[in-house]
Amino acid sequence: MAVTPLKDIVDRAFAARYGVPAINVFDDLTMEAVLAGAVEARSPLIVQTSVKTVRSIGSRVLMAQWTAMTAGIEVPVTLHLDHCPDRAVLSECLDAGWNSVLFDASALSVEENQRQTTEVVKEAREHGAHVEGEIESITGVEDGVGSDTPSERQTLDVQVRFLEETGVDVFAPAIGNAHGSYTAAPELDTQRVSDIVARHPVPIALHGGSGLSEAVFQDLIARGCAKVNISTALKELYMKSSLEFLRGAEEKNKWDPPSLFRDVRGHVVEMTTGLCREFGSAGQA
Fold first, then answer.
1. What percent of the chain has pLDDT over 70?
2. Among 14, 15, 44, which Cα is nearest to 284's?
3. CA atoms of 125 and 131, how far apart (whole Å)
4. In total, how many domains does the chain have?
5. pLDDT in tens, 145-203
6. Which of 42, 166, 227, 230 has the most CB atoms lying inside 10 A of its own CB?
7. Among residues of the chain, what percentage have pLDDT more than 90?
8. 136 in helix, strand or coil?
9. Are strands 225-230 and 130-134 parallel, antiparallel or unpaired?
10. What cofactor does this protein call for (predicted)?
């Protein structure tokens, strides 16, 4: 199987109506653990990095880790750059070998967003890569990108024109979803997904997936959400499981970092396999 273009993964999921976990990793441990979880679940997987992670670790180091960890992997996996408004970072990651990017130009006018996204698609194609686009920002700040102020909703005609003119491979509409942890069940306009797909069949990316119920996931995946983003849930799991382990280490006065890493890895693998089962991608590799 090995490293696979994003479009190949999401197009198959879109056609068969299952969702592929798109998990934001932030170090070598989480990258290796989510890949191991996908192999265990026999599932395709989208591994994502934020701009913040790229800047803190470096694109070359991340790509070296990715190349080493995916050598001979038995399931289809792809490396994706999440919400990126910075064209220079997009180019850096495409040059380094990322398989796809999300150009987040939602802060721009629709016209300027469309113009620049078209340019990004052309650049990505020169690298054999794919592009996710959006014209409405997803509420919430994630890794320093985004806004807590809901963006203006665009009409279906505007969305379809954007899709037709830019040729993006995946589309991320705002449907009332938000980055971060939900304090209450969100009111989602799920019909927007169905309307977009009916007019212009394209795999939809569901952002703000952490904390949604299984019933909501199933409904949105059935409507066309082939890419399901998970970020906050992994961060919380990583930090909380580390804290619990360290409290135990303090009680025992036993300080062994490899044991901490092994414990956290186990939790991340378990979370990944669980998401694959929940979204229906388990066994699809």
1. 91
2. 44
3. 9
4. 1
5. 544 556 678 899 999 999 999 999 999 998 875 655 545 556 788 999 999 999 999 99
6. 227
7. 83
8. coil
9. unpaired
10. Zn(2+)
- CA angle (58, 133, 89) in 5-degree steps: 20
Q: How far is CA 72 from CA 62, 66, 76, 123, in A?
A: 18, 12, 11, 28
pLDDT tens, 36-47? 999 999 999 999
Does some domain include residue 152? yes
Other beta carbons within 10 angstroms of residue 67's beta carbon come to: 12
> Range of 109's domain?
6-279
Q: Which residues pair with 134 in a beta bridge?
A: 104
Lowest mean pLDDT: which of 93-102, 171-180, 199-208, 267-276? Answer: 171-180
CATH number of the domain to which 51 belongs:
3.20.20.70
pLDDT of residue 178: 62
- Burial of 8 per CB tally in 10 Å (0-12, 13-18, 19+): middle
Q: Tell whether 45 is covered by a domain.
A: yes
pLDDT tens for each residue of 217-254: 999 999 999 999 999 999 999 999 999 999 999 999 99
User: Does 64 map to a domain?
Assistant: yes
Would you say residue 42 lies in a domain?
Answer: yes
**Residues composing the chain:** 285
Contact 37, 268 (CB under 8 A): yes
CB within 8 Å of 198: residues ≥ 6 apart: none
